[in-house]
Specification:
By secondary structure, the chain is mainly beta. The chain has strands at residues 15-18, 29-41, 47-48, 55-60, 72-78, 97-101, 112-117, 120-129, 134-138, 148-151, 158-168.
Length: 181
């Protein structure tokens, strides 16, 4: 495939170029394979943050609004505490894949982040309150989930693992039914 120009090894072997026989032109399209690095809670931080690849998420590069393609990874959202979030017009529901830019750790108040809190992975809205010397991780849900408060003196137990840049919605089970013509 490499000799035919369909595979671009690149430095991380994630970008695969394909030529669509249906497009009518020879312009190469980019299909990304984003590593899935496990699960992350959208509620209490109870999911162990593991740095192992559980699989790859194939996705069109046109669906990703980031120039840092080599630093992207996905986690599968577990829980309901972010079902009113707004990441590019998409909520974060249980079972959705959340795309994270692992290089973007300079987040500001209002950004959605993947955090590691005491070794546990969590997705929340990041709010920094310098006046109160704390970081607050807020849920955005139609149910009540208390925020997580972290004092600046305890930031050694807290890590921003990256900024959430996109949500790939979980397919609905009945949306992919095959019905003969």
């Amino acid at each position: 495939m490499e000799k035919l120009g369909l595979l671009d090894e690149g430095k991380k072997k994630r970008v695969v170029q394909t030529k669509s026989p249906l497009s009518g032109n020879d312009e190469a399209r980019k299909l990304l394979s984003i590593p899935i690095l496990g699960l992350a809670n959208c509620g209490d931080a109870t999911m162990l943050a593991e740095a192992r690849i559980d699989g790859m998420l194939p996705i069109s590069s046109k669906l990703i609004p980031s120039a840092h393609i080599d630093n992207l990874f996905a986690v599968k959202a577990v829980g309901l505490s972010m079902n009113r979030a707004d990441v590019n017009g998409r909520t974060i529901e249980d079972g959705d894949y959340v795309i994270v830019d692992g290089e973007d750790k300079n987040v500001k108040s209002g950004d959605y982040v993947l955090s590691v809190i005491g070794g546990m992975a969590n997705i929340k809205r990041f709010m920094e309150f310098k006046k109160n010397n704390q970081v607050v991780l807020q849920s955005e849900s139609n149910k009540f989930f208390p925020p997580i408060h972290i004092h600046e003196d305890e930031l050694d137990e807290y890590l921003v693992n990256g900024k959430v840049i996109e949500v790939i919605k979980r397919p609905q089970e009945d949306s992919y039914r095959y019905e003969p013509i």
